[in-house]
Write a structure and sequence with these properties.
Blueprint (H helix, E strand, L loop, with lengths): L8 H23 L8 H10 L2 H11 L2 H31 L5 H18 L6 H19 L10 H31 L13 H14 L32 E6 L5 E4 H6 L3 E8 L10 E10 L1 H7 L7 E6 L4 E5 H5 L2 E6 L2 E2 L9 E3 L12 E7 L21 E2 L3 E4 L5 E8 L5 E7 L7 E2 L1 E2 L17 E7 L6 E9 L21 E5 L1
Parallel strand pairs: 1-10
Antiparallel strand pairs: 1-2, 3-4, 4-7, 5-6, 5-10, 7-8, 7-9, 11-13, 12-13, 13-17, 14-15, 14-18, 16-17, 18-19
The structure holds the ligand Nc1nc2c(c(=O)[nH]1)N[C@H]1C(S)=C(S)[C@@H](COP(=O)(O)O)O[C@H]1N2 and molybdenum atom (MO).
Length: 506
Amino acid sequence: MTDDLLDSPGGRLLVSVAAAVAGLAGSYAVTGYAPAFIASPIERALARSMPGIVVSTAISTLGSLGQQLNLLLAIGLAGLFIALAARAAILTGQFTNNRALPVVGTAVVTWGVAVVLTGEVVLAAGPAVPAAAVVGLAQALDGLGGPMTPISSKRRRALSTVGAAVGAATVGYTAGNRRTTGATGDAALTLDAPGADLDDVEEKLAVAADASLNLGDIDPLVSENFYEVDINSIDPDLSAADWSLSITGAVEEEVTLDYEDIQGMEGENRFVTLRCVGESLNGYKTDTALWTGVPVDRLLEEAGVQSGCECVMLRAADDFYEEFPIDALRGGMLAYGMNGTVLPRGHGYPVRALVPGHWGEVNVKWLSEIEVLDEEADGYWEKRGWQGTGPVNPVAKLHHESTLSDGRRRIGGHAYAGLRGVQRVEVSTDGGETWTDATLSDQLPAASGDGPAEDAWRQWEYTYDPPSGGHTVVVRMVDQRGEVQPEDETDSYPSGASGWVSKQYS
Ligand SMILES: Nc1nc2c(c(=O)[nH]1)N[C@H]1C(S)=C(S)[C@@H](COP(=O)(O)O)O[C@H]1N2
Ligand SMILES: [Mo]
């Protein structure tokens, strides 16, 4: 037994962990928050194999925290692989008396693990080199004095190794963050497509701003903060130049389109609202944007649909897939722009589907394939017990409340009913005994400019004298056919929250 750091089990553990930290940082440095990051495939495998009941419970109890915990677990596992690789290399080197093996072994095994996980041969050097460097550093510190006593104490050498790992982590974290924002362009890129009418975008956004009721704390008619829901902790990071979409399956002729094809076609600008089936009744997962893209029906006609089930499966780059009636898709669009900017990565860059009036989940992001089916099949969420491929449930939310200087109360929110359209919102301030119509925002315009948008929410507001003592406000919406939304309350699982929103004020 020498005084060498690498000769004690504790020292080897410390160096292995330091190598893992440096390796993770190195991977992040060269990939950023992207699928090539060494933890990303692990995170994805964990998320995809999680039983439906666990995912659904996590969604309702933890929200997006569940996904973050999953990512942390994946990073821990990736680190464990690197640490084990380093430890094995150190031990084998010592056993065979080979001075080169700890460094070379750590590099090769870490590289191999990264290649197997990510499929990235070059980027796999990201974790391999720093991990091996830390092992090499520890070895060098131990051996600096040659066969004699090393120049610094064992404690000092341990601290130097840890210091190197912390330094690598800091540099890697910074570099990775820079890469992430560089790739996604935090400052949204202005849209510029031959087929897009950008003046029309500006006009429609101005109309929407004008039509919005000024309710201070809640989103105007075009959401400022559009919710994001998907199965990824780390979103696909696609290049538009490499992207293509194929229409396959029960068609007369398969059609493949690339980004340029889509951008060259005559485009349209459409207001569409999305609502997630996992949203709680008075939740915040309903939002509206002005989307730029092309109608799907032309493309389906070009392919010649011959479906036995009149149904279709949309597939995406994150291995997400959803099946639903093809008629719903015929009315939909393929969007590459959002509110006058290039479709952001988090919302499906380069191209996503929009299926008017249907739950968010069938509005597939990072779209790669439209497969026309001959037989019904389950989508990703339906395999996990959800039933979220149909039309949305109507809802009137209560998100704004303020007291005016004269003591009156002002309340408001958004109302959405998919293709049924919002005709009225009714408010009761006496727990549902009596009802009064709320003031509604004007309807957003249709893509053509003629008439209202077929699938967009509206805002409502109502001002009243609050009775002394407590009172209960209830809100409900009435669709364009005059039908009042169902009163019965249901949870979001499995087919979307439903019911009248009510709040008690003291
Ligand atoms: N490829 C892909 N598309 C997806 C999802 C996903 O996980 N992967 N999530 C769906 C769900 S559940 C919803 S509610 C909407 C949300 O769209 P947004 O993130 O743009 O708001 O995207 C849908 N499209
Ligand atoms: Mo969703």
